[in-house]
Write a structure and sequence with these properties.
Number of domains of chain A: 2
Largest sheet of chain B: none
Strand content of chain B: under 5%
Order of helices and strands of chain B: HHHHHHH
Helix content of chain A: 25-40%
Number of strands of chain A: 8
Radius of gyration of chain B: 16 Å
Distance between the termini of chain B: 15 Å
Oligomer: heterodimer
Order of helices and strands of chain A: HEEHEEEEEE
Strand content of chain A: 35-45%
Shape of chain B: globular
Number of domains of chain B: 1
Number of helices of chain B: 7
Largest interface: A-B, 29 and 31 residues
Radius of gyration of chain A: 21 Å
Helix content of chain B: over 70%
Largest sheet of chain A: 5 strands, mixed
CATH class of the largest domain in chain A: Mainly Beta
CATH topology of the largest domain in chain A: Ferric Hydroxamate Uptake Protein, Chain A, domain 1
Structural class of chain B: mainly alpha
């Protein structure tokens, strides 16, 4: 019986973990960023210091920002912990040695999500701005 | 601090950094949690120095953004959890601990966002990362269950040789 007793605590802990996962899944389903289905038009403005801003209109059925940007080959990057990490926008690569990086904003306000989890709706306006310094 | 301790800390810090970069392409699948738990059990207090070598290298590679402040405490919390549970011996128990840490990673990481942007920013940051936290917890569980025993044996043997040097 002893080996069975040894397993009781870990099995209870395992059960608790499963409950936590279910609770987290429920919270995510309740409060996740709302998305809109169907065709939509969004505007993406590429902002590079000392250059004229470029506005690009995208048509998509996607629900998150990452999809239309990748479909249009507007961005390139690497997949990381929080989705795609943008390294290149419209052919302009951020220079790591100069501490350059691409900042994503919506109507000027920084988005709190990665581009693959940033919801989009018809008429949204996003900016992709090349920033220097971390 | 002895020279051999400095060498050990540098090498183990570099090892953590290397495995993190090597698995970067797999979202939230990492060996850092597993190695920090093993290091804490084997190298004890030296692990704190190893953690901060790793954190510094991460900042140098990815930049010292707001995320980096999370790294300053999140791995140290794991160190202290391991110290508290150090008498635990079974791989299953460590797998559960590791899974719990993975599930809470986003919540721990969002603390600076709660401080700088309030509940709205911190909450939205945590909630949008929940799918990644679930992947993190499950992958931590599996990796620990599979790799804990063989890696513990190897590292423990190496540490015995190291202590005799």
């Amino acid at each position: 019986m002893k080996p069975t007793n040894k397993l009781v605590k870990p099995l209870i802990a395992l059960g608790v973990l499963v409950l936590i996962i279910l609770a987290m899944f429920f919270i995510y389903q309740q409060y996740k960023p709302e998305t809109t289905k169907g065709a939509k038009k969004i505007i993406v403005e590429v902002v590079i210091p000392d250059q004229k801003n470029k506005e690009i209109t995208l048509h998509t059925d996607g629900e998150f920002l990452g999809k239309p940007l990748e479909e249009e080959k507007l961005i390139k990057g690497t997949k990381g912990d929080f989705g795609l990490f943008i390294q290149e926008v419209d052919g302009h690569k951020a220079n790591d040695t100069k501490k350059e990086w691409w900042c994503v904003t919506k109507d000027g306000a920084e988005v709190n999500t990665g581009i693959d989890s940033t919801p989009i709706k018809d008429g949204d306006h996003f900016e992709l701005t090349l920033k220097t310094g971390y | 601090m002895k020279a051999k301790a400095i060498v050990l800390i540098g090498m183990m810090g570099a090892l953590l950094f290397t495995v993190q970069v090597a698995l970067y392409f797999l979202p939230n699948v990492e060996l850092v949690t597993l190695l920090i738990i093993l290091f804490t059990l084997i190298f004890k207090k030296k692990t704190l120095f190893i953690i901060y070598v790793f954190v510094l290298l991460e900042g140098l590679l990815y930049g010292f953004g707001l995320w980096w402040f999370g790294y300053l405490y999140v791995w140290t919390i794991l160190y202290f959890i391991t110290v508290l549970l150090k008498k635990v011996a079974s791989p299953l128990s460590w797998a559960i601990t590791s899974a719990g840490f993975g599930l809470s990673f986003g919540a721990l990481f969002s603390i600076p966002y709660f401080i700088t942007g309030g509940i709205a920013l911190g909450g939205s940051y945590w909630i949008s990362g929940i799918p990644f936290d679930i992947i993190h917890g499950i992958s931590n569980f599996v990796l620990m269950l599979v790799l804990y025993k063989p890696l513990f044996i190897i590292l423990n043997k190496l540490n015995i040789h190291y202590e005799r040097m």
